[in-house]
Amino acid sequence: MPLTDTALRKAKPTDKTQKLFDGGGLFLEITPAGGKRWRQKYRFAGKEKLLAHGTYPDVTLAEARERREKARKLLANGVDPGQHRQAEKAAGVERAANSFEVVAREWLAKRDWVPNYLGKVTAWLEGDVFPYIGSRPVADLTAPEFLRVGRRIEDRGAIESAHRVLQNCGQIMRYAIATGRADRNPVADLKGALAPAPEKHHAAIVDPEGVGALLRAIDGYKGGHVTRCALQLAPMFFVRPGELRQAEWSEIDLEAAEWNIPAHKMKMRQPHLVPLSKQAVAILEELQPLTGRFQYVFPGGRSPKRPMSENALTAALRRMGYEQGSMTVHGFRAMARTLLDEVLHYRPDYIEHQLAHAVKDPNGRAYNRTSHLAERRKMMQAWSDYLDRRREDTGKVLEFKRSGTRR
């Protein structure tokens, strides 16, 4: 006789396991401890087997019957329902192992990026991507799902970040394809779907008179001596701000007048050599008695075991009256690129190489760290000499005149 909800509610445990049958092999097993578990008997390939359908009342009588009928249909088609369920579980485990978040974290672990940038990309993914599609299998993701991710970021006004996050998502999907976990990259279908990212430039002073005023302001900076030295060296070195802050004494050879930056600190992951002008060596020799016992040339104010904070030099520029729209620490690079070209007339490849940009020789090969070293030494000394002239000249401005001669 089929079971009823009333009979199930009234069923009480005894000192022996009970079986209340509903028909079609389905029964409720009641243990002496009071557990009530749905089971289904069936035969496959001549063997009697049991299939579990959950516990009562979490699984109602109606739901248990639906599960029984699904199992019977599988049997009618020659499929063992027990093995079918195991295959579904295995597929679920595999899908979870190939979720977007799992693949993304695997991809992140293989990135040879500077820690700050790696942390930034990880934070983007954790904050804007994983909560929405992180649990989805990479093979099932669609272009509209990625577009919704980008739209959420775009809607809060972070258009540039939206483009960068989707760019990272596209790289992760290409990694998923390469590792056999996806067949295509749906992010590639989103070209033009987001609002164009605004063109971004780092504010920089590039007119000679303005450069002179800035250098004089740096010399007169009333803040910490270490910060003033870093600001004085920033235009001479024109490296990226993070590379400057994290300079270590072990990388600097004052006798050889060289700063050798290891590959892991560089954006392009290639070692970089900065020839030191006489002026730069003089500043470093003045600074060495103060910070030479520490790891970093410019140690942090709170702990000498850490480099100067990311905002220290920016804050110093603001204290001197240079707002974000007029000058940035990164702007020293644009200053050097412009004036070395327009005023001092150095070859663009020398300048780009010293900026640690990807520069190739006529045969398409990447230059190494010592390429054109003699010429770059002369350029760096001429650049420091030019900065001295701009600092000292409060009235006369060198003409912006392009010459056909390249040094």
UniProtKB/TrEMBL annotation:
Record's keyword terms, sorted: DNA integration, DNA recombination, DNA-binding
UniProt xrefs under Pfam families: Arm-DNA-bind_3, Phage_int_M, Phage_integrase
Single GO BP term: DNA integration
Domain Tyr recombinase: start-end pairs: 201-380
UniProt-listed Gene3D superfamilies: 1.10.150.130, Integrase, DNA-binding domain, Intergrase catalytic core
SUPFAM superfamilies documented for this protein: DNA breaking-rejoining enzymes (SSF56349)
Entry's Gene Ontology molecular function annotations: DNA binding
Tagged with keyword Hydrolase: no
InterPro entries: CB (IPR044068), DNA_brk_join_enz (IPR011010), Integrase-like_cat_sf (IPR013762), Integrase_catalytic (IPR002104), Integrase_DNA-bd_sf (IPR038488), Integrase_DNA_bind_dom (IPR025166), Integrase_recombinase_N (IPR010998), Phage_int_M (IPR053876)
Keyword Nucleotide-binding among UniProt keywords: no
Core-binding (CB) domain ranges (all copies): 98-177
Domain of life: Bacteria
Family: Belongs to the 'phage' integrase family.
Protein name (record): DUF4102 domain-containing protein
Origin species: Luteimonas aestuarii
